[in-house]
Amino acid sequence: MGSVTSTDVARAAGVSRTTVSYVLNDTPGASVSEATRRHVRETAAQLGYAPSAAARTLRRGRSDLVVCVLPDWPTGPVVDSLLDHLTDVLAERGLFVLVHHHRDSRALSDLWRAVTPQAVVGLAPFAADDARAMQQAGITVVGPVEPADAGAFDRSQHDLAALQVDHLAARGHRSVAFATTTDDRLRRFGDARYTGVQDACADRGLPRPGRTAVRTDEPATDAVRRWHRDGVTAVAAYNDEVALAVLAGARVAGLGVPESLAVIGVDDSPAAAVAAPTLTTVAQPVTPQSEHLAAVVLAALDGLVSPPWPDDPAYVVVRESA
User: Fold this and answer.
1) Are 67 and 117 in contact (CB under 8 A)?
2) How many CB atoms are located within 10 Å of the residue 152 CB?
3) Cα radius of gyration (the chain)
4) Nearest of 266, 221, 260 to residue 242 by alpha carbon
5) Helical axes 17-24 vs 34-47, angle rounded to 10°
6) Residues β-bridged to residue 179
7) CB-based burial label for 73 (10 Å; 0-12, 13-18, 19+)
8) How many other CB atoms are there within 10 angstroms of residue 235's CB atom?
């Protein structure tokens, strides 16, 4: 059986297709009585009529979509929370969020030309050419743009790592290592955070930290033993997943945490609070960031000035591991 059309609704309701169009599209100024409007809507509901998204897009020149572009990274608790909140806020405006994991193998323009969104939101910097092409097509662009805004993106990652070193140095640690991820998709984050650890150590007169890539699907035993042999007393991990692999490696190596090796992560993931020992980590202000992202998108769609970045900084959640 084919899908129900507006013609079917008009026939069943005993009205013209024009009247159905006026009612279902809430056409301003249409002279249709409230009783007829109610009758058409009830008939459409009974028949299971669903308006064509493609036709609506053609009429308006835009869909009801806001595309959120994620680079080719795995998502974690911070990104998940951002997307959840953005979806809830935009739903109140009758908008849908389409999450797109961008791959370099296909141009971003293929996406926005296919779905014609109202806005495209980037959680990482857009290429300048992509941003310009979307703006020229009348699409609202929300997010950093290369190269001007890339520095701020990298600095935010840099500052997270500096907080780790601040915490470790305050507890007397003089030899710090950086444990990064083996996932090449996160290289930019890892590089920025390693630079943050390096700079923070230099500012405090600490030795230059080494960088070791750690798998997250097995204990980082070899790395832990090497750090212990080299006199490293603390590890700043790229994120909580890497930190948990370091904790597991310390258990296998028979080293006490934090007695022989202090460990600090980033993200304050749910697993951090139930690790053994519980994991000290840097928490990002997810709720303020989520609210800010949603407010920036709405301001951009309404042609308003974007609100300032929230003052709530990242902070250290102190637990047993450091």
Assistant:
1) yes
2) 11
3) 26
4) 266
5) 90
6) 212, 237
7) middle
8) 33
Q: Does residue 55 register a pLDDT over 70?
A: no
Mean pLDDT of 4-12: 84
pLDDT tens track for 82-127: 888 888 888 888 888 888 877 666 777 777 777 778 888 887 788 8
Q: What is the pLDDT of residue 4?
A: 77
- φ and ψ of 295, to 5 deg: -65, -35
289 close to 313: Cβ distance less than 8 angstroms: no
How is residue 292 written in tokens? 């800010």
Enumerate residues 6+ apart whose C-beta is below 8 A from 131.
141, 145
Percent of the chain with pLDDT over 90: 40
**Residue 229, both tokens:** 């042999």
Cα–Cα distance measured from residue 17 to residue 7, given in angstroms and rounded to the nearest whole number: 6
**Span 185-199, pLDDT tens digits:** 888 889 999 999 999
pTM exceeding 0.90: no
Q: Which structural domains are found in the chain, ordered by start?
A: 6-51 (1.10.260.40), 62-148 (3.40.50.2300), 151-284 (3.40.50.2300)
Residues 208-253 have pLDDT tens digits of: 999 999 999 999 999 999 999 999 999 999 999 999 999 999 999 9
Q: How many CA atoms lie within 13 A of 221 on its CB side?
A: 6
